[in-house]
Design a protein that fits this description.
Structural class: mainly beta
Strand order of the largest sheet: 3-4-5-6-7-8-9-10
Order of helices and strands: EEHEEEEEEEE
Largest sheet: 8 strands, antiparallel, barrel
Length: about 180
Amino acid sequence: MMWAQAPDDYVRSDASTRQDTAETPRPWKDRFYYGGGLGLGFGTITNISVEPIVGYKITRNGKLSAGLGATYWYYRDNRDAYNFETNVYGGKVFARYRILQPLFAHVEFEELNMELYQPRVVGLARYWIPFLYVGGGYAAHLGGNNYLLAMVLWDVLQDPRGPYTTGAPQISIGFGLGF
């Protein structure tokens, strides 16, 4: 038998003696989920991205959740005409609502610090660029609390300095791990 500390009291985590009712405090490990994205591309153009997230299940059944994330990209273009290298970084907040067991709606605000070429400045300048993504996704259960996630999101702000000004959806695939 094992005891885990909850915010206000102690919760017994032995499944044979615990009854899951609205009054029973949930263990911390059952309230959070972790995940994110990792991208690697090497060659004439190198692109490395790391995007961890942590989410909190707001409702007991996990239908509504919210979370935070960080973004870091390293980008290098070695083509003769470009020879460009930069780092992009920022953060995000998001909310998800599970519509049906595998389907969820997703909204996310992200702000990235990007280095952009500015002819008036005669060179590169850094800017914070906002993104507001709206869309949804599918979570395929892999076993335990682990999921494969696929999302389709649209940036509704369409900041003219941003890289996604065509209105095309952003498609991402990642993993969710509920330790």
